[in-house]
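Page header: ASSEMBLY MODEL / two components / 648 residues total.
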Amino acid sequence: MKRMARIAVLLSLVEELKKNGSWCGETHIQKTTYFLQRMLEDDLGLDFILYKHGPYSFDLSEELGRLRADNLVKVVPQNPYGPRMLPGRAWADLKETFPKTINRYAKKVSFLGHWLGNKGVAELEKLATALYVTKELNIEGGQRAEKIHELKPHVSLEEARAALNELDMQMDSVRELVAAV
Amino acid sequence: MGCSLKLFGGQRSLGEMSRSHGGTILRIIKQMTTKRFHEIRDPVAVFVKLDTAEREVLNSAPVQRLRHIHQLALTYLVYPGATHRRFEHSLGVMHLASRVFDVITDEENRHDGCRDIFPAVDELRYWRRVLRMAALCHDIGHLPFSHAAEELLPDKKTHEDLTYALIKSPEMERLWNTLTPPLNTNHIAKLALGQKELPMETFSNWEAILSEIITGNAFGVDRIDYLLRDSLHAGVAYGKFDHYRLIDTLRILPSGENNLSEPTLGVEAGGLHSAEALILARHFMFTQLYCHPVRRIYDIHLKEFLLATLPGGKYSADIRSHLQITDAEITTEIRKAAADENHPGHLPAVRISNRQHYRLLYERNPEDIKANLQSVQMVFEAACVEFGEENVRRDHYSKNAGIIDFPVLTPMNGIVSSWVLSEIIPTIPSIVVDSVFVSPLIKAKAALWLAKNKTDIIQRVEKEEEQ
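Prediction written out in full:
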């Protein structure tokens, strides 16, 4: 995917998150983008590593800074949490330039917005780490919860299991969506 | 020899004592008179102190090689004073890392929400030493002229990969084992490189914090030292800030929404102004010095020279070869190539040696970005068509565009984002550089061409791809 098309998808996701009540901090955008790339299997070309609060892409962080410089993202303080990232004034033009691309991803973006838009950073961290353990470390079954707890000791085994249950349920529900694009 | 000591009330020469008591007493005296701590004068830190065991690491071939690696590549061709090397920077990073460690581990500075991450008191000495050695070695993998031609390593390797290999090399491993207590090589590698460069390693919260002390985006001492040092040597005052105050107010704090359990480096409210000054210094240093267009084009010419000159256009990733090559060898080759028309790197060598570098034609600007987000790309493509690719170069840099945020401990013991408390931080723009350069031979012609055609060029819009 070319950079500008990728940005169009990314910003449509940010817009959807905002619509669903997210305060759109960088962590929210990082985790939902990770879900888009790995759970919904869209190759956005971003490298994610396991970092503070779960999977994190330094490429994406740099990209968000560039988007800010290009007025595609505006960053405003959100008391008391920190910078909130919202589509900027140049977003409307970009949207007009890439209608087909945005439309192609609309269902996936809408699914993620509905599912993750109202979740806080702590919940997103658990779910995204659960996906990371499943997809990147290829761990199966009950061992996944132990691995999450090992990687993130502040997440209890019980919380890890709950996150995995939710993830597995959602993975089943998106099979059709993944096959569709 | 005139060496004498006042021992047990009497003054006798070393020679006399050794004659009367044999080798044993001489050994004892030698131990008593040998300095265990050493000071190195430094223009930024004033004195960098290290003990004898640490000095062995300083004397190792990988660290000594840094005496021959310019901190700022060919920047001295623009700012003549910027001839300092990675060696003194590494000493400075070690010095600052120790200061930060002492502040954040001080019992009085520990935040209740993070108390459980600190190791036991007797382990702190070990970790302080690991941190110092990691700081001293964090740059040993740097290629000649630092970042300028890093892409020329094979298989997408980076200088951090070489740092990792060197820290784990038998020569360095032997040194880690001679320290008291012996240091775990993996701990040093983790702290020197951080989570970003070692994604397959699992970091404990404590290891993550210690690596953040060196490599952190907001308060990493690597950054603190290079801003202060580069500013001093280049004669660019923008890089200065009150790092004494900043370091004294650094704290390990819970981070993010709901005070998440993974801690991070933040500041006490009293240090917010010095933190702002650091971020401003960083902004100005990037815009005025690191991204100076002439400095950037010299990097491009250097890369072209190395592509033409190195076997297969690549550096070796073998650490033995790495230790053999420094700026000195490359500089000699550039001078040779500039004088020899048959040298494969002749043209870029002439551009560097004879100051025939490409000239800035166009750079990213808010007005044109408003008209077309791809304006630089459009100008670059049009210039290539008009003047030929060999006469046009593009430089893009956005590595440090990311947003910096950190927790601030308020007087009421609450934790608030720096973006909420600071009036300055949210106003500091992201650092993005995007420029087009042309050969000096066509500069005047190209400037006229651009003035005439710019409006048309930047109105060209990228078409949406059909799936």
